[in-house]
Specification:
Strand order of the largest sheet: 1-2
Radius of gyration: 27 Å
Low-confidence stretches: none
Shape: elongated
Length: 183
């Protein structure tokens, strides 16, 4: 052959050795799954700062009425005491997968949205003295208390997905996997 050229020789022994190595590391992907779990836990917690779902859509804003009476973190959605964000964790799911989520019992209603049916009930309300903003107070600070009936009602919570895979997450998982396979 005239001109320049290269010759590629495939050695069956080299290819077989490399495939054997891949089979060995694929048998125990725990280290790679831990890296994926840590990455997803971090990006999920970051969504609480950006208040944007994994698909790039912003979370639905708080209702003005709720935002006015919210005692702390008034400008933060899904953050009253930061428990939901703080309890985002990951764990292995069998030998070849990882789960990312929260064990808080209210996590699902915030992720998927829904309507909560509240039954009618009796309750004591405690009234303070002075300024109208302190109308309802804790029992220990009450000037007077009253037994009331609270009627049955519904509370609708909009979906604010904090779990999920963004395009960036998918690229990062691919990169983690490829780096791990090439070691």
């Amino acid at each position: 052959m005239a001109g320049s050229h290269i010759t590629v020789t495939v050695s069956p022994q080299t290819a077989e050795a490399r495939l054997q190595h891949l089979q060995t590391i694929l048998a125990s992907p725990g280290e790679m799954l831990a890296q994926v779990g840590e990455h997803l836990m971090r990006t999920t917690k970051d969504r609480f700062r950006s208040q944007i779902a994994s698909d790039g859509t912003p979370w639905q804003a708080l209702q003005p009425r709720y935002q006015r009476r919210k005692k702390k973190n008034k400008d933060k959605i899904l953050t009253l005491s930061a428990d939901l964000r703080r309890f985002i964790t990951w764990q292995p799911d069998g030998q070849d997968a990882v789960k990312v989520g929260s064990n808080r019992k209210y996590a699902a209603i915030h992720q998927f949205g829904g309507t909560i049916q509240k039954k009618a009930r009796q309750s004591s309300v405690h009234f303070g003295v002075g300024k109208a903003k302190h109308l309802f107070v804790k029992k220990s600070k009450a000037a007077r208390s009253k037994q009331v009936t609270i009627g049955a009602h519904e509370v609708t919570i909009p979906a604010r997905p904090f779990l999920g895979l963004s395009a960036h997450d998918r690229r990062e998982i691919t990169e983690i996997t490829l780096e791990w396979l090439q070691r």
